[in-house]
Write a structure and sequence with these properties.
161 residues; mainly beta; 18 strands; 4-stranded antiparallel sheet
């Protein structure tokens, strides 16, 4: 998707630099899974590669789609949103990271755990720091001053260092 800055706004343009989006935006983020997060008048939504708004600009904050989901903030609450614009689940966390290998890191009271794609807490929020799951199904987490390796069941496999 190609964009151009014109008259104080970003617009989606075609290969001839002709504006094809119906609306201009304060910000257009990179395409992620066919959708780009856009900002206009302090509200976020999503457009497709043709510049068409496919998810309305109603959110207070929004991130990129990864593995078919993103987190959005609406009226002060976080939620999981799918690419059709349907809220999967309201979330009671302070932070939600992008999904990797089916799990997203969540934060509450400066502690971290993991949720699945239905928004269910799979690994309890008890770690001081957490890294994304890798393709082998393991993640690094820190408990106190020890880094551990956990699997997707939350089992602590070994102390990393």
């Amino acid at each position: 998707m190609k964009t151009k800055f014109n008259e104080g706004l970003f617009w989606v343009v075609n290969s001839n630099d002709e504006i094809i989006s119906i609306s201009g935006y304060d910000s257009i983020k990179e395409l992620s899974e066919g959708l780009a997060c856009v900002l206009k008048q302090s509200k976020y939504g999503y457009i497709d590669e043709n510049g068409e708004e496919v998810i309305p600009l109603i959110y207070d904050d929004a991130g990129p789609f990864i593995e078919g989901l993103t987190s959005v903030k609406l009226k002060g609450r976080l939620a999981l949103l799918n690419k059709e614009g349907v809220i999967i689940k309201q979330l009671d966390y302070e932070g939600v990271w992008c999904f990797h290998e089916g799990y997203a890191i969540v934060e509450s009271n400066n502690k971290f755990g993991f949720i699945d794609k239905q928004g269910e807490e799979i690994i309890p929020i008890k770690y001081d720091e957490a890294k994304d799951f890798d393709k082998m199904g393991i993640a690094d987490v820190r408990a106190g001053n020890k880094w551990l390796i956990i699997n997707k069941l939350g089992q602590e496999l070994k102390i990393r260092y």
